[in-house]
Write a structure and sequence with these properties.
The chain has 10 helices and 17 strands. The protein is of the alpha+beta class and about 350 residues long.
Length: about 350
């Protein structure tokens, strides 16, 4: 792996949470597996891979897998026989192979119940829990009827947010409950050069204080302990990140604001912030050619890079839907003003 980033052209980030290495490359160790790219921009589905089998693979396989997930945005694996403990082990190897800071581990969600039988690092994604007052869909249900308002990247309210996330769905309705992902690289590439330069100098505030109300609704105390990084603790649930960030695994820039958590672009007026955020949100929600939609089957699994994608569940069902999610923590978000690249330009597209 290349040496750690030392350039002085870094905008944002934290010294305690810098990536250990530079860009990844693909050695071809995954070429023996059949796969299908689901769109030109985002999404890859592998055939006949089991997470449990990959746990015995060497470090290079994990580096190649990290690069594949980061470059394609999201990877799908069908019919996985894997336990929550194995999911946690897998995610620790993946984030380490990708060069995560020594200070970063697996995330503990602020709403995770203490003493959960699956462990602190497993978030249970449950439609039944949402009915009782949890999840973005509950927060939005009284103020919007637009499903697109639920687009988000995971835990961007933390000073050190997620690099990778893994979700296995084990309980499904007969139909419905799809999930969509969108590419942050593609949205960055659709910005004109003057707007790119404007946004490169700006930060945004991400806020999840609605979790305080959810904790009360669910009857659980908020987890104020260290949540996978020494920088992630307390009840503030607010962080400031660059509007444009560089993914260290690929060196590509992406837009890093989302409808779920981003409240304000800093350093401009509220009116200007509203206009800029609405434009960026619209680029995500109104460009179906920057998205991939996945129809789950029982025990299917997805792994995605939260630094460069958004996702949105489809709440079009009434029967139970549930799964287990693990989020690893990466670096504190930063923009490399000199080395950060456009995906399309780097690939010659």
């Amino acid at each position: 792996m290349p040496s750690a980033i030392t350039t002085t052209s870094i905008f944002g980030g934290k010294d305690i949470a810098r990536p250990r290495g530079g860009e990844l490359t693909d050695s071809g160790s995954l070429e023996k597996y059949s796969y299908n790219d689901l769109t030109p921009v985002i999404g890859r589905e592998f055939e006949n891979i089991q997470i449990r089998d990959l746990l015995t693979a060497g470090d290079q396989v994990f580096k190649d897998l990290a690069y594949t997930i980061s470059s394609r945005g999201v990877v799908f694996l069908r019919n996985q026989d894997v336990t929550p403990t194995e999911m946690k082990d897998f995610m620790l190897r993946l984030t380490f192979a990708a060069g995560s800071p020594e200070s970063s581990g697996l995330h503990v969600h602020p709403l995770t119940e203490e003493g959960s039988k699956l462990g602190d690092q497993i978030s249970v994604i449950s439609s039944e829990k949402q009915k009782n007052g949890g999840g973005l869909t509950h927060m939005l249900s009284d103020v919007s009827r637009f499903a697109s308002n639920a687009w988000h990247s995971d835990i961007t309210f933390e000073p050190v947010p997620s690099d990778y996330a893994m979700l296995k769905i084990h309980t499904l309705p007969p139909t419905g409950g799809d999930t969509l992902w969108a590419s942050g690289y593609e949205i960055y590439d659709r910005l004109s050069p003057p707007i790119r330069e404007l946004l490169k100098g700006l930060t945004a505030t991400h806020d999840a204080k609605f979790f305080l109300d959810e904790a009360k609704n669910l009857g659980n105390p908020l987890r104020e302990c260290e949540r996978g990084s020494p920088l992630n603790k307390g009840a503030e649930l607010t962080a400031v990140h660059p509007v444009i960030r560089t993914n260290p695994a690929t060196g590509w820039n992406s837009v890093y604001v989302n409808k779920g958590f981003t409240k304000r672009i800093n350093g401009v007026t509220k009116d200007e912030s509203d206009v800029l955020l609405n434009y960026l949100f619209n680029l995500v929600t109104q460009n179906h050619d920057a998205q991939v939609r996945f129809r789950w089957k029982k025990n299917d699994l997805a792994i995605w890079d939260n630094r460069s994608t958004w996702h949105c569940a489809t709440y079009d069902y009434s029967d139970p839907r549930a799964g287990d999610r693990v989020c690893s923590l990466g670096e504190a978000p930063y923009l490399d003003l000199e080395q950060g690249k456009s995906r399309k330009e780097d690939l010659g597209l």
